[in-house]
Design goal:
The structure holds two protein chains of two kinds. Chain A is mainly alpha-helical. Chain A has one domain: Non-ribosomal Peptide Synthetase Peptidyl Carrier Protein, Chain A, CATH 1.10.1200. Chain A contains four helices and no strands. In chain A, helix 1 crosses helix 4. Chain A starts with a helix and ends with a helix. The model of chain A has no long low-confidence stretch (mean pLDDT about 90). By secondary structure, chain B is an alpha/beta fold. Chain B has four domains: about 1-175 and about 200-220, Aminohydrolase, N-terminal nucleophile (Ntn) domain (Glutamine Phosphoribosylpyrophosphate, subunit 1, domain 1), CATH 3.60.20; about 230-380 and about 495-565, HUPs (Rossmann fold, 3-Layer(aba) Sandwich), CATH 3.40.50.620; about 380-495, no CATH class; about 575-650, no CATH class. Chain B is about 45% helix and about 15% strand. A seven-stranded mixed sheet of chain B has the order 10-8-9-1-3-2-18. Chain B has a six-stranded antiparallel sheet with strand order 4-5-6-7-11-12, covered by helices on one side. In chain B, helix 9 (about 305-315) links the parallel strand 14 and strand 15. Classes of the chains: A mainly alpha, B alpha/beta. The interface between A and B is medium-sized, with 24 and 32 residues.
């Protein structure tokens, strides 16, 4: 599955229980729009580490990496390229 | 403690349908199984279910004045009735009983509807003045005792619980889908609203007066919590002044506890293992010297259990201690009954263990218990108050890195949460510091409102509008001096008037106690104690981030040092995990099935199915997800109880006609 669709699918199933409306676009902040709370971040990390098999350092747990679909896609892509290189 | 109900003809004469009295009073029989009484004239019907506590021999209700011109039906206690009776005697009033009920009648005659301002107690009553035709309804300052009303045609029905309103033949009560928006944001319905369509509650600290010819009662607030202006709240207070204040608090609390022992039956006490109930029990012990009977509830799940502390305190005070332990089976097994008694959607299972606890009290033949309820609100114990302080401090330097880190001292579990995300989450609404009256509660309300996503599409819009309207109502009800209060005082006010009144004293208080015919009494909610605390700077009550610093200083010598030093453990119960197996799983499968959801029409079956998938996968760990789960389950149960089951439940509760004693006009 395409990465973007996979990430959107997880967010919609896990945090929005199928409601696509709140995730109107891929730039919007997941936190500011109430899609994910501060503890929900841990569920997101579990998804990245589990379903996407990424290793994530604490230092990477910043909004620039995790707080929108676009940021997540870019972050995961960078991580994958780095692990291949 | 008791249940009250009745009907008032707004126009013409009152026609009481056959069975109305037996059904209404019967629906309240858990509140008062000792005697059932009724009285009526051509316009007003008063009903009463009695739990005999004071003046066992002659305290029957409804009660009338000697000349039969003033009648009252009363639920609760006026603790200072002894002093009031002396005062009223000196003013020429004559008493025929030893009850506090008769004091209400005399006080009304002496002071009119303002009499409530002289009452120290927990009460809801409805009084008829036949000379003027005026009907007066009143509710205590904090809303410890409930009072609902509903207009049915030209009749105004009233009752201690909504289920009794449904006892009036032809009157159907229904869950209001829009009202879910209030609970699914603020945890409560903002008075006078309730979870039910066209059912209103008299707000705490209010009296209502219905004059003959009036179409609706006119309502007046007679009390609200008050605090110091912000400047004085931050004042530095020297140690000797702190000691003096601690002494004053100690005396006021001991007086409040002692006056709450007035009863003609034995009074017990709850021990939660925390500071507040320990202090209450210790003060009683100190004032009376009696061996006290104490009760507590523990959990089979160690993460929630405080048994060790309860035992420690019981041993320290040498009480005769009884305890029970609850687990998933007890929580899930009682949940439907808990909802039936609470009469509200719930976002937590926390009421269920308290229902089990009152069952233990009842088994031991006790009718009255003292508890520590209210201490966190009055003396600054809750995290939301500390959170308000930290966020207000942070708002003065929004770029600060260290200030938001103070939040991890309040919520140790947040240490696992990435700091940048923490900042974003609790930083939401930070610019509202000093401006947004609900600044303290904004993160909680915003987060809770996330569960609105489970509402059915055609309910969601009305629910969101109702939530907005509820906030506007709460805003309009703020007292004029609120604007001058500091962040902690504001948070205390909001917590007391909304969450405590609408949830803690109701779903976790009166309803769980009365569900097993037990009356709770709360020394921390004596208005003399609350008013004293309101005159003390927040800098003393909540010194730095130390919760209830002043209260600890006031009672330290009565308690084991382990209890006063112990970090506060919020009272919680396992939520969605309680329903994983056995009866709980069956209840969920049935009440949250697509068919059941479609029938009630309140929730989206697809969304709830996704919630159940996450739950079944064992991934429902977050606070919001658990609120959603319990919120949907409890609402489904409530909609059924007040929907298809309503007529049967009302019918089954009806008393035989000869069980009701009609009082005469003499």
């Amino acid at each position: 599955m395409e990465l973007r669709a996979q990430i959107r699918g997880f967010l919609i199933e896990n945090f929005l229980f199928g409601d696509t409306a709140p995730l109107a676009d891929d730039q919007m902040s997941l936190l500011d729009n109430g899609i994910m709370d501060s503890v929900g971040v841990m569920e997101l990390v579990a998804f990245l580490e589990g379903d996407l098999s990424l290793g994530i350092d604490d230092a990477e747990l910043v909004p620039e990496n995790l707080d929108s679909v676009d940021n997540l896609v870019a972050f995961v892509s960078r991580k994958r390229e780095a692990s291949v290189a | 403690m008791c249940g009250i109900c009745g009907a008032i003809a707004v126009k013409d004469n009152l026609d009481v349908p056959e069975g109305a009295v037996e059904r209404m009073i019967g629906a309240l029989s858990h509140r008062g199984p000792d005697e059932y009484g009724a009285w009526r004239d051509e316009r007003v019907l008063l009903g009463h279910a009695r739990l005999s506590i004071i003046d066992l021999g002659s305290g029957q209700q409804p009660l009338g004045s000697a000349d039969g011109r003033v009648w009252v039906t009363f639920n609760g206690e006026i603790f200072n009735y002894v002093e009031l009776r002396e005062d009223l005697r000196a003013r020429g009033h004559v008493f025929r009983t030893a009850s506090d009920t008769e004091v209400i009648v005399a006080a009304y005659r002496e002071w009119g509807a303002d009499c409530v301002e002289r009452f120290n107690g927990q009460f809801a009553f409805v009084l008829l003045d036949r000379d003027t035709g005026r009907v007066m309804m009143a509710r205590d300052r904090f809303g410890i005792r409930p009072l609902y009303y509903h207009r049915h045609g030209d009749v105004l029905l009233f009752a201690s619980e909504v289920k009794a309103l449904a006892g009036w033949p032809g009157c159907r009560i229904a869950v209001d889908p829009a009202a879910l928006g209030e609970v699914f944001t603020m945890w409560v319905n903002v008075p006078p609203h309730t979870p039910f369509k066209d059912v209103l509650q008299l707000p705490p600290g209010h009296v209502a007066v219905l004059e003959p010819g009036d179409d609706a009662p006119s309502i007046r607030r007679y009390w609200h919590p008050t605090f110091l202006p912000a400047v004085e709240d931050h004042r530095h207070v020297a140690v000797d002044e702190r000691d003096r204040l601690a002494h004053e608090v100690r005396e006021a609390l001991a007086d409040a506890a002692e006056i709450r022992l007035r009863a003609d039956v034995p009074v017990g006490a709850y021990l939660s293992g925390g500071l507040d109930s320990s202090a209450t029990a210790a003060l009683v012990r100190e004032r009376t010297g009696d061996r006290l009977k104490t009760f507590s509830v523990g959990f089979t799940d160690a993460a929630y259990d405080e048994s060790v502390w309860q035992r420690l305190m019981a041993d320290h005070l040498g009480t005769d201690h009884e305890s029970i332990r609850v687990g998933d089976a007890e929580i899930a097994g009682a949940f439907a009954r808990v909802v039936w008694h609470a009469e509200s959607p719930l976002l937590r299972t926390a009421p269920a263990p308290l229902f089990a606890l009152s069952g233990l009290v009842r088994e031991q033949d006790f009718k009255v218990v003292l508890t520590g309820e209210g201490a966190d609100e009055v003396f600054g114990g809750y995290n939301i108050l500390r959170e308000a302080k930290v966020r207000a401090f942070w708002a003065r330097d929004p770029e600060s890195v260290s200030r938001p880190r103070l939040l991890t001292r309040l919520y140790p579990y947040l240490k696992q949460s990435p700091p940048e995300f923490l900042k974003r989450f609790y930083g939401a609404g930070l610019s509202g510091a000093g401006v947004d009256p609900f600044f303290s509660h904004r993160p909680r309300w915003t987060n809770t409102a996330g569960i609105m996503t489970f509402l059915a599409a055609d309910v969601a819009e009305a629910a969101a509008a109702a939530a907005t309207a509820a906030e506007e109502r709460a805003l309009a009800a703020l007292p004029a001096d609120f604007a001058g209060w500091g962040p902690v005082a504001r948070a205390q006010y909001v917590e007391m008037t909304l969450f405590m009144a609408g949830y803690l004293l109701s779903s976790q208080g009166d309803r769980m106690l009365m569900g097993h015919t037990v009356e709770g009494r709360f020394p921390f909610l004596d208005h003399n104690v609350a008013e004293l605390a309101g005159r003390i700077p927040a800098s003393v009550k909540l010194a730095s981030l130390e919760e209830k610093a002043l209260l600890k200083r006031a009672v330290a010598d009565l308690l084991p040092v382990e209890v006063t030093r112990r970090p506060k453990q919020p009272y919680r119960a396992p939520d969605s995990s309680s329903f994983f197996t056995g009866y709980g799983a069956e209840l969920v499968a049935e009440a949250m099935s697509s068919e059941a959801l479609l029938e009630a029409g309140l929730f989206s079956p697809d969304r709830v199915a996704a919630l159940l998938r996450k739950w079944q996968a064992g991934k429902l760990t977050g606070v919001r997800d658990n609120m959603a789960f319990i919120g949907v389950l409890s609402t489904q149960l409530l909609a059924r109880q007040f929907g298809p089951e309503q007529e049967r439940r009302t019918h089954d509760a009806a008393l035989p006609a000869d069980a009701v004693v009609w009082r005469g006009n003499t």
